[in-house]
Design goal:
Its main location: other. It comes from Pan troglodytes. Keywords: Coiled coil, Endosome, RNA-binding. The chain is extended, with a radius of gyration of 58 Å. Helix 1 runs parallel beside helix 17 and helix 4 runs antiparallel to helix 6. Helices cover about 85% and strands about 0% of the residues. The protein has a domain of about 260 residues. It contains 17 helices and no strands. The protein is an all-alpha fold.
Length: about 775
């Protein structure tokens, strides 16, 4: 129930968390939209400000022009008003007065034009000076802001550097103290080492004296006792059976098994790679189901179809090599004859790679020449062609070194023993190079597949084939990496195991001597096996394991068994006491029975036959009352009924004895049954108590989990509240920012109004001027 409630709480929390995440996304989107709107409003404000300035300038120019025209009209009206009465009065002197008026008019016009131009020039100078002043002021303000920010940054950098320098100073002081302590400890260790070196020198002197004495003794024994030293000559020494190193053989078999698994994975990946490459040729650049592919691709597909006959033998050769390494053999390069077959299979596969390489390069060139090939795809194809050349070269290099390793088992003069380690090192380097080439192929082919998937003519068949090729290339890359790391990890062991061979010699001389040595080893093993005595019968291993499982799975502990044994011993002692008591009772009963029989016999002699019937009835009544159950009563009465009326003393004694014995057996069986039930119940009670203790522990663990869950719930709730508060704060900040923007807009509008008023005042002043 607690787990169900906890799960329900977790589900509710998950739902609330998902809702809050959705609200978080909505709020983020709203914040981004508001920021975009504020930016747009700023841009609109700038545009409006610029248009307002332009309109203000146009309005100033228009007002100035209107004032000029109004003055001109007033002058013309005044001149017209002056000219009309003069024309009425002085019509006669018209020509002379008209000339004067024209001269005056021209003078006025020139004067007026000069004043207008001067006023316009003054307005322009004033406007330019105002604009220049604003521009300079803005530049100075921006420069002041940049300088302030730079000063703050420099101050922060200075503070950080001072803090860093203080930390480094503290760290250096701590390091100094640690180094001082370390120097003191090192001085103490140096003193101890000096004392140890003196003791070791003394021990070395004693050991040298002891070993020199033993050497002289052994040399004398060898010179006197050994008639022939077979280790002196390498030809004879190669026939000696080396000491059997079972650990080395098991290690080599384990390594061979791992190598077999890696080769099997590599073979599977190579088969898939060649097969899917064949399928790709049938699909791209020309689908064979729609149109015929080129003769080059047909030949390439035919060769690729034969890949299994070249790739499968690699697995078979490695399997034969693994089977040749057993616990009874001696595994060195001179005895691994099956490595030659694996090298031959690898050579045949490399011939296959050489055969398909030109067709593969030509096929990639044909893809590049097709109309569907883009520049990026052409570049990937060129990279893949280079990678295929590298892959073939790496396989050739690897085959060369493996062929060299196979020489000691066939041609002993082909490779010197001193070059074994360098050849093994080069094999590891070649495997790492193979891994690097496969990584490049995987990278370039994945890029090529991604480009081809984006082509409009890419079919689903091409996409699936590319995915299959890419998966096989990835498998090849992983397999090459595993083999390279596996060989590098075991390289030191391979180099060290080369010295495993005959004693006091450089190794086996030839494969023939190694084969003879193995035969001698088999004979020696058979002889030792014949000398071995058969072991005594014991408990089978499976039965012992089953008994051990039963013993471990039983609920009774050692203390419980000891208590049961003690209780059973006490019960046995009680039963023995009861047995002695009942033995005494039986003896007393027997004596009484003999007396009673004697008495009955005396009575029978004295009395007649009439009393026989009554006596038999009396004995039957006594036997019926003695039995407590009906079965025993019947068992007692049946033999009496079958006998004659003459009583037999021995039969009655046997009946009574059998009755009491049956009763004792029944009581003992009931007692044993009760004891077994009590033991069983006791074991069950112990098991239940243990289960109860385990349940209590699980209950405590669950309570701890519930506490942690409640803490997590409270933490999540706190996080939710903090996120809500942060979003509310962000919204309030945004609203404040919008309010400040509105305030700035209103201030700018007020400034525009003041500028308008000032321009109107300037225009009035100009009019008055």
């Amino acid at each position: 129930m607690a787990s169900a409630e906890l799960q329900g709480k977790y589900q509710k929390l998950a739902q609330e968390y998902s809702k809050l995440r959705a609200q978080n996304q909505v709020l983020k989107k709203g914040v981004v939209d508001e920021q975009a709107n504020s930016a747009a409003l700023k841009e609109q404000l700038k545009m409006k400000d610029q248009s307002l300035r332009k309109l203000q300038q146009e309005m100033d120019s228009l007002t100035f022009r209107n004032l000029q025209l109004a003055k001109r009209v007033e002058l013309l009206q005044d001149e017209l008003a002056l000219s009309e009465p003069r024309g009425k009065k002085n019509k006669k002197s018209g020509e002379s007065s008209s000339q004067l008026s024209q001269e005056q008019k021209s003078v006025f016009d020139e004067d007026l034009q000069k004043k207008i131009e001067e006023n316009e020039r003054l307005h322009i100078q004033f406007f330019e000076a105002d604009e220049q002043h604003k521009h300079v002021e803005a530049e100075l303000r921006s420069r002041l802001a940049t300088l302030e920010t730079e000063a703050a940054q420099h101050q922060a950098v200075v503070d950080g550097l001072t803090r860093k320098y203080m930390e480094t100073i503290e760290k250096l002081q701590n390091d100094k103290a640690k180094l001082e302590v370390k120097s003191q400890t090192l001085e103490k260790e140096a003193k101890e080492c000096r004392l140890r070196t003196e003791e070791c020198q003394l021990q070395l002197k004693t050991l040298h004296e002891d070993l020199s004495g033993r050497l002289e003794e052994s040399l004398s024994i060898i010179n006197e006792k050994v008639p022939f030293n077979d280790t002196k000559y390498s030809q004879y020494n190669a026939l000696n059976v080396p000491l059997h190193n079972r650990r080395h053989q098991l290690k080599m078999r384990d390594i061979a098994g791992q190598a077999l698994a890696f080769v099997q994975d590599l073979v599977t990946a190579l088969l898939n790679f060649h097969t899917y490459t064949e399928q790709r040729i049938q699909i791209f650049p020309v689908d064979s189901a729609i149109d015929t592919i080129s003769p080059l691709n047909q030949k390439f597909s035919q060769y690729l179809h034969e890949n299994a006959s070249y790739v499968r033998p690699l697995e078979e050769g490695m399997l034969h090599l693994f089977e040749s390494i057993t616990e009874d053999t001696v595994t060195v390069l001179e005895t691994t004859v099956k490595l030659k077959t694996f090298s031959e299979h690898l050579t045949s596969y490399i011939c296959f790679l050489r055969k398909i390489l030109p067709y593969q390069l030509k096929s990639l060139e044909e893809e590049c020449e097709s109309s569907l090939c883009t520049s990026a795809l052409r570049a990937r194809n060129l990279e893949l062609s280079q990678d295929m050349k590298k892959m073939t070269a790496v396989f050739e290099k690897l085959q060369t070194y493996i062929a060299l390793l196979a020489l000691p088992s066939t041609e002993p003069d082909g490779l010197l023993r001193t070059n074994y380690s360098s050849v093994l090192t080069n094999v590891g380097a070649a495997l790492h190079g193979f891994h690097d080439v496969m990584k490049d192929i995987s990278k370039h082919y994945s890029q090529k597949a991604a480009i081809e998937h984006e082509l409009p003519t890419a079919t689903q068949k091409l996409i699936t084939t590319n995915d299959c090729i890419l998966s096989s290339v990835v498998a090849l890359t992983n397999g090459a990496g595993k083999i390279a790391s596996f060989f590098s990890n075991n390289l030191d062991y391979f180099i060290a195991s080369l010295s495993y061979g005959p004693k006091a010699a450089s190794g086996f001389i030839s494969p023939l001597s190694a084969e003879c040595m193995l035969q001698y080893k088999k004979k020696a093993a058979a002889y030792m096996k014949s000398l071995r005595k058969p072991l005594l019968e014991s408990v089978p291993y499976e039965e012992a394991l089953a008994n051990r499982r039963i013993l471990l799975s039983s609920t009774e502990s050692r203390e419980g068994l000891a208590q049961q044994v003690q209780q059973s011993l006490e019960k046995i002692s009680k039963l023995e006491q009861e047995k002695e008591h009942w033995m005494l009772e039986a003896q007393l009963a027997k004596i009484k029975l003999e007396k009673e029989n004697q008495r009955i016999a005396d009575k029978l002699k004295n009395t007649g036959s009439a009393q026989l019937v009554g006596l038999s009835q009396e004995n039957a009544a006594v036997s019926n009352t003695a039995g407590q159950d009906e079965a025993t009563a019947k068992a007692v009465l049946e033999p009496i009924q079958s006998t004659s009326l003459v009583p037999d003393v021995e039969s009655r004694e046997d009946l009574i004895k059998n009755h009491y014995m049956a009763r004792i057996v029944e009581l003992t069986s009931q007692l044993q049954l009760a004891d077994s039930k009590s033991v069983h119940f006791y074991a069950e009670c112990r098991a239940l108590s243990k289960r109860l203790a385990l349940a209590e522990k699980s209950k405590e663990a669950l309570t701890e989990e519930m506490k942690l869950a409640s803490q997590n719930i409270s933490r999540l709730q706190d996080e939710l509240t903090t996120t809500k508060r942060s979003y509310e704060d962000q919204l309030s900040m945004m609203s404040d920012h919008l309010c400040s923007m509105n305030e700035t807009l209103s201030k700018q509008r007020e400034e525009i109004d003041t500028l308008k008023m000032s321009s109107k005042g300037n225009s009035k002043k100009n009019k008055s001027r």
